[in-house]
Amino acid sequence: MKLYDDKRAPNPRRVRMYLAEKGIDVPLVPVSVAERENRKEEFKQKNSLQQIPVLELDDGTCIPETLAICRYFEVSQPAPPLFGETALEQAQVEMWNRRIEFQLLSTVGAYWRHCHPFTKALPGRIEEAGLQGKERALVILNWLNEEIAGRDYIAGDKFTVADITALCVIDFASFVGVPIPEGAKNLLAWHARVSARPSAKA
Ligand SMILES: N[C@@H](CCC(=O)N[C@@H](CS)C(=O)NCC(=O)O)C(=O)O
């Protein structure tokens, strides 16, 4: 088994952090996004969308998509549970994970794709789309700050994969120029709490 990974990319970090929380060791194969290694023809065999992370099983089966990879391990090693245990917990983790991906990762991603200097060589950039993404991401960060008032973690009182998604997305947002607003005290406290976990360094 091996994981195609890039230390600088947010989605592979989600898998590494998840594996660290589980205590699962998977050999990493570096694939540099900056060097466009994922866009080489041979990588299409692993993921036809040519993105990372990808988990390759010993029989050659490849599993792309961050959450699909985490779910694979959640079934093969359920403890500690990171997708919730009860029906309600699982629904809440799913809800929050989707909200972070759809509301925050996609909007920050638009800013990164269309406005950031590191991506200026990409064809078809539309500055307005990026700026709208940044504006929406800031709205969502402030909304999330209100939503988590009174609780320690994104989906409730337990650390879950939704915290992993949120941490990796929020750190990426900060890197691209959309940091947590100074007044978002709940979110800043949550960020400090989750960043202190050893898995955050994975
Ligand atoms: N939905 C996918 C998104 C994967 C993705 O966007 N990966 C980025 C790195 S964080 C990538 O491979 N970017 C390079 C590219 O698209 O060429 C997942 O969750 O795994």
Please characterize this protein's 3D structure.
The structure is a single chain. The chain has a four-stranded mixed β-sheet, with helices on one face. Helix 3 (87-115) packs antiparallel against helix 4 (127-147). The two termini are 18 Å apart. 36% of the residues are buried. The radius of gyration is 17 Å and the shape is globular. It has helices at 10-22, 66-76, 87-115, 127-147, 161-176, 185-195, and strands spanning 2-5, 28-30, 54-56, 62-64. It folds into two domains: 2-76, 3-Layer(aba) Sandwich (Glutaredoxin), CATH 3.40.30.10; 87-201, Glutathione S-transferase Yfyf (Class Pi), Chain A, domain 2 (Up-down Bundle). The chain contains six helices and four strands; from the N terminus they run E-H-E-E-E-H-H-H-H-H. The chain is α+β, with helices and mostly antiparallel strands and 202 residues long. The mean pLDDT is 97. Bound molecules: glutathione.
